[in-house]
Amino acid sequence: MERAIDFIKAIVKLKAVERSGWKKRGVRAPESVADHSCGTATIAMLISDLGNQDTEKVLRMALLHDLQESIVGDLTKDSLEYSNKKRLEEEAVREILKPLPNTIRDCYINIWREYCEGNTPEARVVKYADKLDMLAQAEEYQRQGYNVEDFWKEKYEFQGKSKKIYQTLRALFLQHRNSTR
Questions:
Q1: Contact at 8 Å (CB) between 100 and 6?
Q2: What's the rounded Cα separation, in Å, for the pair 142 and 181?
Q3: Which residue has the higher pLDDT, 148 or 120?
Q4: For 29-46, how does the pLDDT look when each residue is reduced to its tens digit (9 = 90+)?
Q5: Where does the pLDDT of residue 131 fall: very low under 50, low under 70, confident under 90, or very high at 90 and above?
Q6: Residue 128: which pLDDT band, with cuts at 50, 70 and 90?
Q7: For residue 121, what is the domain's CATH number?
């Protein structure tokens, strides 16, 4: 357990890493990466349960998907480091997981890589949940008066149940926004 302390410290650091995209749009005190990871995991759990997926694996993946950001930060497409993003993130994940027992470390690295590749049903669920959490947060910031409408205009590749959830979520947010004006 003593070796796991460094891993736990990396998780705690995620609470202090603010989401870069919100900061760049002028959001004061934006959500942290840990906030986002919690939202992503909860949405992923719901989508997984609705789709009879492997929810335990989905939850592990969702909780690990942004782990590297405790070291590299929340890299956006316009950041200087973005061209080296994959390499930096892989190195960070390896560093964070290094103190864990081999079997756990290998399991977590494999789940994290599976998420990055996005080729399995579980990885797609987490990727959709990641986007849905971001869109729900965009709506909340929009409601608070920040101009983040561009997040809804992005083209996301939602399919199946996640596409229906996205469309329903967007319609409900727009309906709610219009009814509160």
A1: no
A2: 13
A3: 120
A4: 999 999 999 999 999 999
A5: confident
A6: confident
A7: 1.10.3210.10
C-beta separation of 73 from 89 below 8 A: no
Could you give the CA distance from residue 150 to residue 100 in angstroms, rounded to a whole number?
40
Which domain does 104 fall in, by range?
2-179
For residue 3, which of 98, 111, 76, 89 has the smallest C-alpha distance?
Answer: 98
Go through the chain and tell me how many residues it has: 181
CA distances from 93 to 86, 100, 107, 154 (A): 11, 12, 12, 28
Amino acid at residue number 60: R
Q: Is the pLDDT of residue 22 over 70?
A: yes
Number of domains in the chain: 1
Q: What is the dihedral of CA 135, 68, 24, 132, to 10 degrees?
A: 0
**What is the rounded distance in angstroms from the CA atom of residue 83 to the CA atom of residue 36?**
23
